[in-house]
Design brief:
The chain is built from 10 helices and no strands. It is an all-alpha fold. Helix 3 crosses helix 6, helix 6 packs parallel to helix 10 and helix 7 crosses helix 9. The model has no long low-confidence stretch (mean pLDDT about 90). The structure holds iron/sulfur cluster (SF4) (2 copies).
Length: about 180
C-alpha cells in the first residue's frame, strides 16, 4: 500500500465501478453519499487536509461517487483521517463524511488493505488491552517517579466488547496479522 488519493491522475473507464456508490449508500453512515455537491467545505475545515498535500475528504467523496473502488481502497491516504467529525458537522448536505471514510476503511480492511501501523495497533489492543506496548523503560521510570503501576489490560473483556466491530473481526478472521 503506497498509493495516495490525490484524485489528480487521469481516470480510466475500466476503473469505474458504477455499483460502488450504491454499495456504500446501503451501509450505515454512507446513506447520504450521493447528496454531496462538491462544495469543498469538508476539505477547507479538515485539520488533516491543512497539513497534507494529498488528503482531501471532498476528493474521497467524489471518487466514491464515481466508483473508483480500487483506487480508494488501495490508498494509504484513506487512513489519514483523524475521525474528528468536523467535516460531518459542517457539511451543508448532511453527508456523514467521516462515516463514509469509516465505511471505506472497513471495505479496505476486508481486503486486508490496512497500513501495518494500524494492524500493529489493533493487534496490541487485542493482545494486551493497550494500543501500544508500553516500553519497559517507561514502566521503570514510573517507579522512580513514585507513580503507581499501570493497571493490567483486559484483552479478554476487550475482545468480548469488540466482537461485533467489523475491523477487529476482519483482522481476527484473517488471522495472519496479529503476532507476525
Ligand atoms: S462539505 Fe458535504 S457537500 Fe460539501 S464537498 Fe464535503 S461532503 Fe460534499
Ligand atoms: S473526520 Fe477526518 S476528514 Fe473529517 S474533518 Fe476530521 S480528519 Fe478531516
Amino acid at each position: 500500500m503506497t498509493e495516495t488519493t490525490t484524485g489528480r491522475e487521469p481516470i480510466r473507464a475500466s476503473e469505474i465501478d458504477p455499483k460502488f456508490k450504491y454499495e456504500i449508500s446501503r451501509m450505515h453512515g454512507g446513506e447520504k453519499l450521493l447528496k454531496c455537491f462538491q462544495c469543498g467545505t469538508c476539505t477547507s475545515d479538515c485539520p488533516v487536509a491543512r497539513f497534507s498535500d494529498t488528503y482531501r475528504p471532498r476528493t474521497i467523496i467524489r471518487m466514491a461517487q464515481l466508483g473508483l473502488r480500487d483506487r480508494i481502497l488501495k490508498s494509504d491516504t484513506l487512513w489519514l483521517c483523524a475521525a474528528c467529525y468536523t467535516c460531518t458537522d459542517r457539511c451543508p448536505q448532511d453527508v456523514e463524511v467521516a462515516s463514509v471514510i469509516r465505511v471505506l476503511r472497513n471495505l479496505a480492511a476486508e481486503r486486508g488493505l490496512v497500513p501495518q501501523v494500524f494492524k500493529d495497533q489493533a493487534c496490541s489492543i487485542l493482545e494486551s488491552g493497550y494500543a501500544y506496548k508500553i516500553p519497559e523503560l517507561r514502566i521503570k521510570k514510573r517507579e522512580t517517579q513514585g507513580l503507581p503501576p499501570l493497571p493490567n489490560g483486559s484483552p479478554g473483556k476487550i475482545r468480548k466488547a469488540l466482537r461485533e466491530v467489523k475491523f477487529f473481526k476482519t483482522l481476527e478472521n484473517k488471522g495472519a496479522q496479529c503476532g507476525q
